[in-house]
Write a structure and sequence with these properties.
The chain is an alpha+beta fold. It has 21 helices and 27 strands. The longest helix is centred in the middle third of the chain and has 17 residues. GO terms for molecular function: peptide transmembrane transporter activity.
């Protein structure tokens, strides 16, 4: 009891102390954001260019560093950051040329040129402990400059996706200053403190205990890609402060000591009740972010019986009432999606709309009332809206708006068809209606679940377990701290890992989604898969998908052919259902409008709305101070 009281006291002290620990800066000129990944273990080290974890989201990737390119899901584009334009390949993809943006400077006044890129790439290739060493060593034959703003990469073999190593999407290779690193004996042990910035802010101060890091706007902000592209960032200071669990963030924001929080749905409800200035991504229900490029759901292990049978996988899918499912998981506040890419507005336009007619006409190999069964339900968004109204929420009637809010559709709730699929494979029910395997033993499904009850992955496990229990299957959830390793080793039947590797989010290229599925990466149960996510973690392969992936590797990612291959790959995944997409990641943010307004909310989604993403520096020029003190 005394220990619990001590923990509560320390948490409260953190919340109250918060901003007051950082003395001498005006609150009205300071934006405060929570640190997503926790307290910094080595707060004096700003060298994030090694393979060691260094908490890049304490402002390093959001404010200090500019990549060559930045992926932007809300805009649906790739932003040319330090690069002046997109990558330039030769005809057979054995050479890539990068043209740099002129007039960009490091924060110590030295211009950023091709010399920095060439030196940094060669340094990475020399030291195995540097990030991207393996990728660069595998593919780069040589790198050189042709002038101060042009870098050429000669590749050892064709690679139409080599540039993606430099596209920042919560991680990428980012340039570091030659004139600083060339003077140190060992770039791996170098602290890079004080750090030199290519972004619009420089380090002002940090907490030796690792709770906070303070950044100050550069006087020459206009000599950075952020300033050139979007103008002057409005806050003079940005403070990243680790408040810990969601309750602390609620208290801090209610006291106006935290402007941007990442919290749970339960905490958000408490927040808006306590602070009239707080808001979510949407001002009204369903509140959540719908531009997050992660797709949630669950994965079947297709090397485990009976999940190696397509009929079984489809039966379990049709045993789900998606509206009830999302109601269990997030009170209906998450956008549903049938494809292995999230139903964010960008992908709805690019892929969901393109595949809508195909989905409506898609049939399973089973007849209902003498006709092939069409499993797609294009009215699911209307049912989701009705659920919301029954819960007392106000939602619009316009179907296009509803699709943007709740997703464009999902599979029909068809337990009768699911029953037919199972029975034709020898499954039966006992006298109590419980399903039996073909050998007559009870069917029990074990789901390996994320250990955090508020995480969308865990919520998927909760929802699907209830749906399958309703259908007559004995289901057990097994939350575990080791569940990611369990998934990667294939020691599972069903897991709530992502149903596919995450797409770029702001570009049509789906190679990132498909590549790990190629049969050349297949590993038997007990060996680590390339990833624990999606069909790769589930040991599923298909020669048709191999062909799609191999063709993608030979075409430009901007080409029409590449997009057509993406559509073909999505169709194969729908037909085979090796994993089941359910809803897009429902990001829950809490923004305080007491000091700052014009956040990138649903009414004006000018940028991905997360303060932990590297795109955050591009949000800051759009914020507006309220003038409150």
């Amino acid at each position: 009891m005394k220990k619990s009281l001590l923990v509560i006291f320390v948490s409260m002290l953190l919340v109250v102390a918060g901003f007051s620990q950082v003395a001498g800066i005006p609150r009205e000129e300071t934006l405060i954001a929570n640190v997503l990944t926790g307290r910094v273990g080595s707060p004096g080290i700003f060298n994030v260019f090694t393979t060691s974890w260094r908490n890049p989201d304490r402002g390093v990737q959001q404010l200090m560093l500019e990549p060559l390119w930045t992926m932007e899901p809300a805009r649906g584009e790739v932003i040319n950051s330090l690069a002046a334009e997109g990558p330039i390949y030769n005809e057979d993809f054995t050479q890539m040329t990068v043209k740099l943006r002129k007039g960009c400077y490091w924060s110590d006044g030295v211009e950023i040129t091709a010399d920095d890129i060439v030196y940094a790439i060669e340094t990475v290739m020399e030291y195995s402990g540097m990030s991207y060493h393996e990728q660069f060593d595998m593919y780069i034959d040589k790198v050189y400059k042709t002038n101060d703003y042009t870098v050429v990469f000669e590749l050892k073999e064709p690679n139409a996706r080599f540039h993606t190593n430099f596209v920042d999407r919560w991680g990428a290779w980012r340039p570091f200053p030659k004139h600083i690193f060339e003077k140190v004996e060992d770039p791996l042990s170098f602290d890079f403190n004080p750090p030199i910035s290519s972004g619009p802010y420089v380090l002002k101060d940090y907490d030796a205990a690792g709770y906070w890091t303070l950044w100050e706007k550069r006087e020459d902000w206009d000599r950075t890609p952020t300033g050139m592209l979007f103008g002057e960032p409005k806050p003079k200071y940005v403070l990243f402060y680790y408040y810990g669990e969601a309750t602390n963030q609620v208290i801090a924001q209610a006291n106006h000591n935290l402007d941007m929080a990442d919290i749970t749905m339960e905490a958000f409800r408490a927040l808006v009740q306590r602070n009239p200035y707080s808001r979510g991504y949407r001002i009204e229900y369903p509140w959540v972010v719908n531009t997050d490029p992660c797709m949630t759901g669950f994965v079947f292990n297709t090397d485990v019986y009976p999940y190696n049978i397509k009929d079984v996988r489809w039966a379990l899918t049709l045993a789900i009432d998606i509206v009830d499912y999302i109601g269990i998981a997030f009170d209906g506040a998450a956008p549903m999606g049938v494809l292995h890419v999230p139903p964010i507005p960008y992908y709805q336009e690019i892929y969901y709309e393109s595949l809508e007619d195909w989905l409506k006409n898609f049939t399973l190999d089973i007849n209902v009332n003498g006709k092939p069964f069409k499993p797609y339900d294009p009215t699911a968004a209307l049912r989701a809206a009705q659920y919301a109204r029954e819960r007392g929420y106000e939602v619009p009637n316009d179907i296009e708006t509803l699709k943007e809010m709740f997703g464009p559709g999902w599979w029909k709730y068809a337990p009768d068809v699911a029953e037919q699929l199972l029975e034709r494979n020898g499954f039966t029910r006992d006298k109590n209606g419980k399903w039996l395997l073909p050998d007559g033993t009870p069917w029990k499904i074990n789901i390996e679940a994320h250990p955090n009850p508020s995480h969308p992955q865990h919520r998927n496990s909760l929802a699907v377990a209830q749906q399958w229990r309703n259908f007559g299957i004995d289901v057990s959830m097994r939350p575990s701290e080791q569940y990611a390793s369990i998934a990667q080793l294939g020691n599972f039947e069903v897991t709530d890992q992502w149903p596919a590797s995450e797409p770029w989010g702001g570009h049509p290229d789906l190679y990132r989604v498909f590549s790990s599925i190629h049969s050349k990466y297949y590993k038997p149960i007990g060996d680590n898969a390339v990833t624990g996510m999606g069909p790769a973690g589930g040991r599923w392969t298909d020669p048709r998908m191999d062909k799609v992936i191999e063709q993608m590797e030979k075409v430009d990612w901007d080409s029409e052919e590449n997009m057509e291959l993406g559509i073909e790959g999505l169709k194969i995944l729908v037909e085979e259902m090796p994993s089941v997409p359910t809803f897009g990641y429902p990001g829950v943010v809490g923004w305080d409008e007491y000091y700052w307004t014009n956040y990138p909310g649903a009414e004006n989604p000018y940028m991905i709305p997360y303060h932990h993403w590297p795109n955050f520096k591009y949000v800051l020029p759009f914020l507006e101070p309220t003038g409150r003190k």
